[in-house]
Specification:
With 360 residues, the chain is mostly helical. The chain has helices at residues 2-14, 18-53, 61-75, 78-86, 88-105, 109-137, 145-157, 179-201, 213-219, 271-274, 314-322, 324-331, 343-346, 350-359; strands at 280-282, 288-290. The chain folds into two domains: 1-222, no CATH class; 253-359, no CATH class. It has a two-stranded antiparallel ribbon with strand order 1-2. Helix 2 crosses helix 8.
């Protein structure tokens, strides 16, 4: 603040050169706001561009889910599967972030996005300078021309960048009679400011953004993030909601490490088939409920609407078969007894699993 006061004092004492100093001072105020506006506009542009051009992000969350499952199957990394199953929201963020970083690193895209945003914002500022000059130019008898010019300038910039009018109080009483000269001085100072910022942007990377593009993109795939207490699959409601959680396909309960009571046999059944069976949901040694009355167990079970259905996606049959040894080590159990993997599962190929996934 003391530096601003000193500069304002300089402007008052400089006479003919005060207009140039005024322009430089004002551009010093504009620069950080312009930098912020460029990054914000670029982040939005990247998210919008990828939403329109990258197939993974052109649909809804269900279609993005298919893309992530395809990616996991192609990669065949068990730990990444575990991250997806245990922390689906974090995995989605990470998946989108990797896609955004890859997209922006190709063909100088990030650099071009930033240059486009800078050019747009710079032209808007020039337009604001010109419009403000026109407003004041004919006000011959006004003694507060600079104050009037600043009012118009900040108002014109309102939708482009944040430049609070109150921050310019210290220079609003300067005596500048040649408004056209001010217009030219501002144009010259703005050009120098743009060149300097362009050099900075040339070395920018994704960490330079205050508001990350991948987070903006991820917001478009928000919804309910509650996981089924039995199998861990996400509720398929596309918005936070009141009422029961639900989903189309439940998964084998082994994906949450569930075992048959008092055995080390892993459970390959899905929730929607168990609620149609005579099996029991065992909460602890003294509390159990028939699966058909799972809601009696209270929250979180009672908050889910699980309809009887024996349909299981081939994808998870393939996953359980392919990562059988990994799952046994992870959950210290065995696929035996009631948890024995059917021969039909072992015959499912990855491509068959993916083909079925695409159909839904």
């Amino acid at each position: 603040m003391s530096e601003d006061f000193f500069t304002c004092f300089q402007i008052s004492c400089q006479g003919a050169t005060s207009v140039t100093t005024f322009a430089i001072f004002l551009c010093d105020k504009i620069a950080p706001a312009l930098r912020q506006a460029v990054y914000e506009k670029t982040a939005l542009a990247i998210a919008r561009d990828m939403k329109g051009k990258v197939p993974d992000f052109s649909g809804n969350r269900a279609s993005l889910e298919v893309c992530m499952l395809r990616y996991l199957a192609e990669e065949e990394n068990f730990e990444n599967f575990m991250m997806y199953l245990s922390s689906p929201r974090h995995f989605l963020q990470s998946y989108i972030q990797k896609r955004v970083e890859k997209y922006c690193s190709e063909n100088r895209r990030l650099e071009m996005f930033l240059e486009d945003s800078l050019t747009h914002c710079y032209e808007c500022i020039l337009s604001a300078v010109s419009a403000s000059t026109k407003v004041v130019k004919d006000q011959i008898d006004r003694n507060d021309k600079i104050s009037l010019w600043l009012d118009a300038f900040c108002q014109e910039l309102g939708e482009v960048l944040s430049l609070p009018r109150r921050d310019l109080k210290g220079i609003e009483h300067q005596e500048v009679t040649d408004i056209e000269f001010l217009n030219n001085a501002m144009t010259e100072s703005l050009s120098a400011m743009k060149d300097q910022l362009k050099k900075e942007l040339a070395t920018a990377d994704m960490s330079s953004f205050e508001r990350q593009p991948h987070k903006i993109l991820a917001e478009q795939f928000s919804g309910c993030w509650e996981q089924c207490p039995f199998c861990g699959a996400l509720c398929t409601n596309t918005m936070p909601h009141d009422g029961d959680h639900q989903l189309l396909f439940h998964r084998p309960q082994v994906l949450k490490g569930v075992k048959w009571h008092k055995t080390d046999n892993l459970v390959i059944d899905i929730c929607s088939s168990l609620v149609a069976s005579d099996c029991y949901l065992v909460i602890n040694e003294v509390t159990r409920y028939p699966y058909k009355r799972y809601r009696d167990a209270g929250p979180p079970y009672s908050k889910w609407n699980i309809l009887p259905d024996t349909s299981m996606q081939a994808y998870w049959k393939w996953f359980v078969s392919h990562f059988r040894a990994d799952l046994e080590r992870r959950y210290k159990g065995k696929f035996q007894g009631k948890g024995a993997i059917p021969d039909s599962w072992l015959k499912i190929t990855k491509q068959e699993a993916l083909d079925e996934l695409e159909k839904h």
